[in-house]
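Crash report, auto-generated. Payload:
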Amino acid sequence: MIFDFVHRSLRSPSVLVPVEELIANSLGSRMPDARAEALTDAIARRVVDACAFSALAIDGGDEHMTLSLDYGSCTGCGECIAAGEGAFHLANIVPCGVSRQALIRRWDVALGIDVTADEAAVNATANEIRSIVGGALNIRQVDGGSCNGCEAEIAALSNPYYDLERFGIHFVASPKHADMLLVTGPITRNMAEAVKRTYEATPAPKLVVAVGVCGCSGGIFAGTPEVLGGVDSVIHVDAYIPGCPPTPAMLLTGILHALRRQKPKVL
Amino acid sequence: MTTNPTSRTVEGTTDNALRLLEGGNARLVAIFGNVDPIGAKRVYYIVDVNREYRRISVPVIGAIPSATRITPAAAWHERELHEQYGIEIEGHPDLRPLFSHSDDYPFLQVQGDGVCELPVGPVHAGIIEPGHFRFSVVGDSILHLEPRLFYTHKGTEKLFEGVPVMNGTALAESVSGDNCFAHVVAYCQSIENAFGISVPPRGRAIRLLGLELERMVAHIGDIGALCGDVGCAVPAAYNSRIKESLLLASARFFGTRYWRGIAIPGGVRRDLSAENARAFGIVIAQAAADFAEMARIILDTPSVLNRFETTGVLSNKIARDLAVVGPAARASGVQLDLRRDHPYGHYRNITVEIPHFTQGDVLARARMRIEETRVSARLIQDALNGLAAGIIRTPVPSDGSAEGFSAVESPRGELLYSIGIRNGCIARCHIKSPSFQNWPCLSFAVEGNITADFPLINKSFNLSYSGCDR
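Recovered output after restart:
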């Protein structure tokens, strides 16, 4: 009975993943990335055609073509990797940002270089995370109309592999207890009012993090009359975590990124 | 074998459909509408008669008689039909809108001394989906529960329209995220049935791996959550650990935690090397053994049994009347599992052991999940051991017009896609999710229980909001 449980857990080795392995680990996210030096005009055009979600786009015409990839619209379907003749591969970086613009990566196709305006690189040790979090961070998760894929991954943050509680990060039941709202989308017409009211019920200072490609932009649901768009179509958003769904490692990285960039405002 | 031998479509009248439903051994699967390009309306009835799917296509001009008078299972289907297609349904007892929300929604009022209304949601206290529950209670006892859902309605079926058949997979994967592989396989099979395409044996076997893994992940997660709901924290944490070990193995061997981006009409996109198949088998065996031991201890713990036993009973009669599907039905003595009764893909080549219970309480639904996890682990091992060599995918025509439907036994039960294709693009896609069918039965299962047991009972059904709302 209850002693069996205790016995069972005591003799199982810890599975806790060290922070260094978690931060910026994109395994299983399916997010793509380009090898800038391998890009050609033809490949750029082909991957743009292959993308059914308009996440990839070409700017600048034939003389000076740049290719952009908006992670805030990318579902990770893998068509660009299939069409990219080796110039596209699974990402090793975890995209996240404090603005929608920060989710867009750009490559100069002719020069074969990455021309993304650089975001601060995300890495951290457990002690740094504790100091950023400041001992306790209370998060209220709000589903604004998601498919529940993001919820499954957010719930996984509490399992013994990721154990968010080790940093003092808790999920709370009421927005009134929250420092941060983790909001998934797309925001449906039927949930818009509830999301706004949850935001209003959260005491200031507060941070809002939009989660998942649908939370960032409305994703594949953008444009239907039943959906208003991403989380920022109804409330102010402080940071964006893309992914379909984002993996627990991406979520943790994104939450830390949001905190680090917003800290002066929070204090 | 080109199309599913246990399914056929006939042109008919509403009377044909209703007569079929009146007969014995008939189970309503779905009712849905369609408007063709010239504006003519049609209603489709899908009925399971003696383990054979019959789809009746009915041209509609005026009002149609309600099927709800014959089977209450039709109630929500006809409410949806009425709301979305403006078709009058004669004799339907309740045509309140499901999808369009307004502030003055008339909830059923329970009257009498001491009756209070308890509103809960749409935002719930936890990492779960949104929906509203209106309880009518006396003290702690629930007299009536009326769920008001469709907060996550995204117009998904409409979004499918005009999408080339090969590009619809991402949308199918985003109907209900935790059952995304069952959804995308049902989507792919419908297209394969429509075009008369057969998936290579290796592709079918890899799909089975994903479907059974998804069931294991869902059931292990559910058992953990049920323990969490009765304050039994250690097995709750331990089950979340077993579940994560399976997701990590998926990421390692298939590049995706929840099997997104794997299925495609005609087969699968990702193969498995012999070495990875062996390594994957070891992870499955370890997870199954860990879970079996954990389950044995859980079922041996009086404080858990005390909360699970006789709680939230779904009677066999209600389960049949409401055409409940999946583990919830099998826990209430309904013999229905598509893997045996309407086999598809690799399930046509194998025999699946189908556990079933009759008590219909939280304990029976928990035991269903424990038993099914054991069976799923064995099905995965068998499939890995006998993995056929060869290609994993066949080409699908990029043009052409056809209609097809297909159902999959998802972790929550019968999940059906019915798809019309015009010039290589989706013209109409209807999704009958197990949650849409099962939500109404929750009101009956909670009746007479105390409100404090509601989260436990709700979790024991584990219905998807997004899958229902679409």
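Post-recovery validation: Chain B has a mean pLDDT of 93.
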